Amino acid sequence: MSGASKVSEDFSSLGVSKWLVEALRSMKIAQPTAIQKACIPRILEGRDCIGGAKTGSGKTIAFAAPMLTKWSEDPSGMFGVVLTPTRELAMQIAEQFTALGSSMNIRVALVVGGESIVEQALELQRRPHFIVATPGRLAHHITNSGDDTVGSLKRVKYLVLDEADILLTETFTEALATCVSILPPKERRQNLLFTATVTDQVKSLQNAPTIQGKPKLFSYEVESMDKVAIPATLKTTYLLVPEQVKEAYLYQILTSAMYSESSAIIFVNRTITAEILRRTLKQLDVRVASLHSQMPQQERTNSLHRFRANAARVLIATDVASRGLDIPTVQLVVNYDISANPDTFIHRAGRTARAGRSGESICFVTQRDVSRIEAIEVRINKKMDEFINVHDTAVIRKALNKVTAAKRESLMAMEKENFGERRKVNNKKNGKEKTYRRN
C-alpha cells in the first residue's frame, strides 16, 4: 500500500473531509498524531474538548481539522474564534488555517496587537470565517467597535483557547472575559482547550453537561505526558556563573568551536535584558535577532523570519517565544535567566530536541537561582549535569574585555534612544489598557 493512500485512509477514518485530507497530504502531513487521533472524532461528535500534549505534537491540526470539516459543510459567516497568548503564535495558527483552507477560499482574520486597528475592524466587517486573535486586541474591538464590526461573533460555533493554561491566568482574565461575553452561551458553542500543561485551572473546567448520553466535555492527555516532561534526546546542563560576567560566558559559549555553527535561542526574563544582549552580541559580530514585547510587530515578525531562515543564528527572546512556535532547527537553548516557574523551563527547553532530534539546554545559575534549579530538577525528575565546556580562565578574561566594551556601547546607545520610555508613556496614557497591550 502506498504512503499516500495510507494517509488518506488514516485521516478519512477520523471523519475529516476529503478535500482536507488532500490538503493535509499536499502539506506532507502523514500519520495523525496521538492527540489528533483522540480529539478529532470527539470534536466532530459535537463535544467540548480539553487536549493536553507537549509542544510539537500536532495540537493545531487536532482542533483545526474538525472545525474546517464542519465549516465546509456550511461555509458562511464567522464560524470559529481561536485565542492564543502571543502574536507570533496567533500568526502561525492563522497561516496554518489559511494554508489548509486555501482550496476552499477560506477567509481568516488575524487580530493581534501591533497592527492597524482600523484595518482589522474593516477585515472583521467582511465576516471572516475564522478569527485568530490575542485576547487583548479582540477585547479592544469588542469594547470599542460597533455591532457591524463584531456583531457576527454572537453566532460563532467554536471557541478555541490555545495554550489554555496561560490564557486562564490572571494576566488575561479581564480581556478573556470581554471576548467570551459577546459569544453565544457556552451550551450553544463548542469549547476546545489545548495546552502543553494541564493546570488546576484547566482541570477545574471538567465538570460539564452531557450530550447524547455522554459527557459533553472530552478530556484527553497524551499518556504519561507529565512523567516525560522533557524528551530523552535533550541534554540538560547547568553552569555556575557570577551575575556580573554572564554576557562574557554567553559570548564565549556561542563563539566556541563546539557551538559556533549552532542555532540557539537565549531566554531572558526581561525585555531590557533581551535588548542589551542583542545589541552587545551584534557589536561582537554574532548574527543575532531578538523577540520581545517592546518591539514593533513588524520587527518581531522579521526577527522570526530571519531566525527561521538562518540569517540570524542566535535569537534572544523573552517567553514570547517559549510557547508553540514552529522553529524546527534549534540545537541549543540557553536559560540566561532562570524562571521562577519550573514549567517555563519545560516550554523553553521544548524549542530544541523536537521530533526525535537531539538538543541541548544550558542553565546559567547565579547564587540567587539555586532553589529555582532544584525546583526544575524535581519537576523534570532528572538531575542536571554540570556544563564543563567553558573552563579556560585566560580565554574568559580575553572575552570579558571585548564584551564589557560592547555592552558599554550598547547601554549608551539605548540611553540615547530612550529605550523603554515609549512603553511608560503608553501605559500612563492607556491606564487599564496596558494589560491588553501585553498581547
UniProtKB/TrEMBL annotation:
Start and end residues of each DEAD-box RNA helicase Q domain: 9-37
Known EC number: 3.6.4.13
An example molecular function term from Gene Ontology annotations: RNA binding
InterPro entries per record: DEAD/DEAH_box_helicase_dom, DEAD_box_RNA_helicase, Helicase_ATP-bd, Helicase_C-like, P-loop_NTPase, RNA_helicase_DEAD_Q_motif
Pfam family, one: Helicase_C
Keywords per UniProt: ATP-binding, Helicase, Hydrolase, Nucleotide-binding, Nucleus, Ribosome biogenesis, RNA-binding, rRNA processing
Chain positions of motif Q motif: 9-37
Keyword field contains Hydrolase: yes
SUPFAM superfamilies: P-loop containing nucleoside triphosphate hydrolases
Main location: nucleus
Residue ranges of every copy of the Helicase ATP-binding domain listed in the record: 40-216
The protein's name in its UniProt record: RNA helicase
